[in-house]
Structure formats: C-alpha cells, structure tokens
Amino acid sequence: MKKLKMLLLHDGSETVPAETDFAKFEKTAQWSTEISVLRAAKERGHSVSPLGFDGEIYPLIEEVMTQKPDVIFNLSESCLGEYRYDKNVPALLELLNVPYTGTGPVGLMVCNNKAMTKKILVYHNILVPRFCVYHVGETVKFPVLFNAPFFVKPLQEEASTGICQRSFAANQEQCKERVEFVHKHLNKDALVEEYIEGRELYVGVIGQGKHLKVLPVWELKFDKMPDQEHKIATYRAKWNDSYRAKWGIRNECADPLPDGVEENIIDTCTKAYRVLNIDGYARFDLRLTPNNEVYIIEANANPELAKGEDFAASAEKAGISYEELVEMIVDQAIKRNRNSQ
C-alpha cells in the first residue's frame, strides 16, 4: 500500500499525548487504542494526525477540507456523549466523501440497538435469547414470553456499562428491581433476556461482502469464581484489573470445542455479520450451551482495537501482526470508498 495521509479521529476534545509520553499513557483506558493505532500506522510509513471529536462538526469539516486526508481512521465510539449517536460520525464522513475505517452508519445503528439486532437475527433463523424491552417509565408486567432466570441490561449501552452480578435475575421480583434500577439510575430503556447458561465466547470478523476473515475463537474464563457467582461479562469482569486477578478471569484462546461447533460458529457469525449490514470489523459475543447450541448475545461493530485486547490478540493468533491488522482495516476502507463511487 502507498504511504497515506491519515486523520486519526477519536472521542473527546483532548489531544493524544505526545510520542515522548506514550509509555506513560499506552496502558490507560483513555489512550491505549489511539496510541496503538498511531504507532502501528506510523511504523507502516503513514503520516498520522490525531483529532479529538466531541460532537462539534465544524472543526472536523475544516480539518478534512483543508488537510484533505487520504483516509480517516475512525476510533470515535460516541457522539455528544452518547453511544447511540456513534452512527452520526461515519454518516458525516460519507457526506464529506472521505474514506473511513470501520462500520458504516447503518451497521452501527443496528448493532447499537440490541433489540433491533435480535429481531433481524431471529428473522434470519439465528439463535438469540428470547427478550422483551421495557422503556423508561414503563411498568414491568409479567408473565413475559419466557421464564426465569432473566438477564437485565441497558438497551443501548456499550462496554458492559450497567452490567453487574445483579443483572442476573433469578425470579420476577429481582427482574423488576433491576429494570427499575436501569430506568432510574441509568435513565436507559431496559432489555430483559432469558439467561443462557454456557461458555462465554468472542469471535472477531473483518471484511465486507463475500470477503470475510473470521478470527480464532476467544473465551472469557473464570478460574476462581465461586459457585454462587454467575460467570458473566460484567463491567468489573472486563475492566477492573484487581477484580479480574481476584477471581482468575482471563481472556484467551478458547479451550477445545466439540466436533462441528467451530464450523457452526463461523457460519453463524459470517451470516450475522452480513445481515446486520456490518462492513468493517466486528466482534460477536456468544454463548455455547451444554447442548452445543450457539447463541449470539451481542454484535459489536467497531470493537476495542487496542494492541493486546481480544480482537487484536485473536488476529495475532491467526498470524496477523498488529501492524498488519491496522493496515488491513485501512486497506478495506480505501477499497470500500472506491467501490461506492
């Protein structure tokens, strides 16, 4: 690939730390992804300029019109402080007719609404937990169309925000309490699912159309979790290092899968990727039941991309270095823009 002029778009109005300070910030939640991508792109010979985006469109438009980047590496995860507005960023970039990485506005809109995602997957005969939605201010009524145990989470949030051990509801009363918590304390609509017992698996997919690459299956493992605690991907299980160390929580290559399961996972995830209109890269959160049924729990377009995190680690397991992964994502953005014209 030729050397490109790249704009690295990220959340917030702050500036990415200077390269001399990378070692200080590269492991922080705020800057790990930006620093990882910036380093990798520069190592491939690209010229990279970072720009923070907090929802003010005029600085972004001015930057694009004056600097004329060859491609925008889109690391924005929200807009105006809301995850559900993330689709507006690529929509603006399309209006500016500049190539950008990651999934387009339609795929982001669909994946950000968990109920919409599930409806589409159900229509295409892909297994998902049965579910219902309770909007803010709506009274929780029973019976629903499925039995306890339930799992309760915000309808439109990311990164396991709002998910804890209390998200598991063993009965109707606990379910009602958790829905009311989501309404009152998070001010979000609540998604109530049937709880699917099984192994927590993650699968990365990259590409578009017929040209998809499925990465090795990853697994969230709980080595020391007591029996009374449920093995679920809570916010602390994902992001709290001391909590993860205490309970022996690890993200790594999946333990051996039963015969035929990996093929089923690949077929399920590639089909879901296409029907959800994802055209960049994504991670699917799955549950593998004791009966070897594969359920899609969530579809995450534009997942965490920091070096060493699940998506990048899975790619490395497939023989794709981090620098090669970043280059693949950029190359895909250029080709998509070229094909749309």
What Rg is obtained from the alpha carbons, in whole angstroms? 20 Å
Give the percentage of residues in beta strands.
15-25%
What is the helix content? 25-40%
What do the pLDDT scores average to?
92
| CATH topology-level fold name of the largest domain | D-amino Acid Aminotransferase, Chain A, domain 1
Q: What's the number of domains?
A: 3
First-last Cα distance = 20 Å
State the name of the first-level CATH class of the largest domain: Alpha Beta
Number of strands: 13
Notes on the protein architecture:
35% of the residues lie in helices and 22% in strands. It is of the alpha+beta class. The chain folds into three domains: 5-101, 3-Layer(aba) Sandwich (Rossmann fold); 130-194, Dna Ligase, domain 1; 198-339, D-amino Acid Aminotransferase, Chain A, domain 1. A hairpin with a 2-residue loop joins strand 8 (199-208) and strand 9. Helix 2 (32-43) crosses helix 12 (322-339). The chain starts with a strand and ends with a helix.
